[in-house]
């Protein structure tokens, strides 16, 4: 029996690379949950692109609620933190917690995130958070650093090949600075 994995997708370019990679070993479902993305138009654009890659790869995509106000409330005290600071750690934890919960609710064997494709994200921190949340939810967290083995470069190449929108910032209002 092929294990089922729920993959948190932060954006379509990273999602395309990671989903294709994981399809070789898992029954893959994507989870788009990104209340950090601002403004709303940017969120909608990234969601549309993610739904496109779901169709392209024949991977179902679960869409979480867009809870921007909750995200702002959570991160408000850390708005002046630099990129890769404590605000980012909170954001990773919140999105991975929702992914772990979703994985538990829907009977997945594993969950993981595309976040580690980005050279601007801290894979060791994301993996540590994922392990803790895997224990909390009773679902295995697949630890990875998807930027290794030219993962980021492959993500860029695939997004060009398929004409995907590539954003210029992580998505949060504070990272636009």
Radius of gyration: 15 Å
Helix share of residues? 40-55%
Query: H/E element string?
Result: EHEHEHHEHEH
**Number of separate domains:** 1
CATH superfamily: HUPs
User: Main sheet: which strands, in order across?
Assistant: 3-2-1-4-5
* Strand proportion: 5-15%
| Termini separation | 47 Å
Q: In the CATH hierarchy, what is the architecture at level 2?
A: 3-Layer(aba) Sandwich
CATH topology description: Rossmann fold
* Low-confidence segments: none
- Overall form: globular
Structural class: alpha/beta
Question: Which CATH top level class fits?
Answer: Alpha Beta
Biggest sheet details = 5 strands, parallel
Number of strands: 5
Structure description:
The chain has helices at residues 12-22, 40-57, 68-75, 86-105, 123-137, 151-161, and strands at 4-8, 27-32, 61-63, 110-113, 140-141. The model has no long low-confidence stretch (mean pLDDT 93). The protein has a single domain (4-164), classed as HUPs (Rossmann fold). It has a five-stranded parallel β-sheet, sandwiched between helices. By secondary structure, it is an alpha/beta fold. It contains six helices and five strands, in the order βαβαβααβαβα. It is globular and about 45 Å long. The longest helix has 20 residues, at 86-105.
